[in-house]
Amino acid sequence: MTEAQPLTLPTPSPSPAHTVHPVYVIGGGPGGLAVAAALRGRGVRAVVLEKADAIGAAWRGHYERLRLTTTRRHSALPGVPMPRSFGRWTSRADLVRYLDKYTEFHELEIVTGVEVARISPVEGDLWRLEASGGRVLTGSAVVVATGWNHTPYLPEWPGRETWTGTFLHASRYRDARPYAGQDVLVVGAGATGCDLAADLAEGGAARVRLAVRTPPHLLRRSTLGWPAQRSARLARRLPAGLADALLRLHRIGVPDLSAHGLPRPSDGPYSRARAGRPPVHTTELAALVTAGSVEPVAAVESFDGAEVVLADGSRITPDTVIAATGYRRGLEELLDGLDLLTPAGTPAPGASAPGLYFTGFTDPADGTLHHLSRTANRTAKAIPRDRARRLRGRPKD
Questions:
Q1: Which residue, 99, 131, 130, 136, is CA-closest to 113?
Q2: Could you read off the pLDDT of 96-140 as tens digits, one per residue?
């Protein structure tokens, strides 16, 4: 594990444009580490600022069952392949170990325990970062890599605050042991919700229900040895109709669960992924639903005392509700006044400010880690080039 370092760090031999003020990378997850490594490879000093006490904090906190649905080969970051010992589908624990080794291998400059609250441009084509502990840092450029899963999101359900059962967001779930013998309702049928429902059913919960507002596309991770990730990569080059047909091939072997309350969606898996809702790669959930171990139910509408009120008017009384309702990007305060965000809180397409870059704010069908790897070098190349262009354009003293 990378230990916290003091904020004042010795300066390596960077390129002249970044001698005094480094490039600051906000966020020590895979995206931030990949960009920092690419910058270091180009002779540019990059300092990664991570608010937690270790890099890869989001992955360290994920539930134990988690495995990547993208192959080991196409989940590695630039410069360091994942070991074959990880298997084809890398576990959460192995990914954390990989990120530690990646940081070591590239000798990345990491500062932990520093949270950046706001960034703003300052005179001289520089950036001002206001950070925890009253710190004020100045960077020649800033890469925002705070991640897709930054701030847990909870819908404003009426009555939730007075509900008498146990309630938690999925970000606090680790494994099924605390819920053995309980009646548990998982809210949300995305990848996390489906994983947690399967984990609970196999881990000893007495009853597991899955509240579904929008039925997911359930696909196999691999069909006849061909990974769905590879199909998604090919689909990027195809018209939407053909892309949907290609990904539907990974539905072979997944039963139609309509009779069990989980109908197949009418739209295509790739079309929906482009709209921000990627398919769920699982075979375990389908088997558990068929066996009655996981019961799909209607979406949650409200809470009333000990009861949860569902969209179809039915009322249930679970012991625990786990909200797998996703995350927000949490960029509003960080970028306050810059007018760079969409109404959904993601960086707007085409919106830019000189010296400011973003990575990791999409959820692509062919895998987030693969996307971060593709974009890391492009971001690193753009920073020195953009910086040099602005330096050349300055009037002489």
A1: 131
A2: 999 999 999 999 999 999 999 999 999 878 999 999 999 999 999
Q: At what angle do helices 30-41 and 368-392 cross, to 10 degrees?
A: 40
Q: DSSP letter string over 328-378?
A: E---TTTTTTS--B-TTSSBPTT--BTTEEE-S----TT-HHHHHHHHHHH
Residues sharing a CB contact under 8 Å with residue 307, sequence separation 6 or more, in sequence order: 315, 316, 317
pLDDT interval class at 363 (50, 70, 90): confident
Q: How far is CA 140 from CA 14, 18, 108, 391, in A?
A: 12, 6, 18, 11
For 226, residues 6+ apart whose C-beta sits below 8 A from its C-beta are none
Task: Please check the confidence at residue 18 and state whether its pLDDT lies above 90.
Answer: no
Position 350 scores a pLDDT of 77
Question: Distance between CA 215 and CA 296 in Å, rounded?
Answer: 10
CA distance 185 to 117: 35
Q: What angle do CA 210, 215, 217 make, to 5 degrees?
A: 115
> Given pLDDT bands bounded at 50, 70 and 90, which one contains residue 300?
very high
Alpha-helical segments (H) within the chain = 30-41, 57-61, 92-105, 191-202, 228-235, 240-248, 269-274, 284-291, 368-392
Q: For residue 116, how many other CB atoms are within 10 A of its CB? A: 21
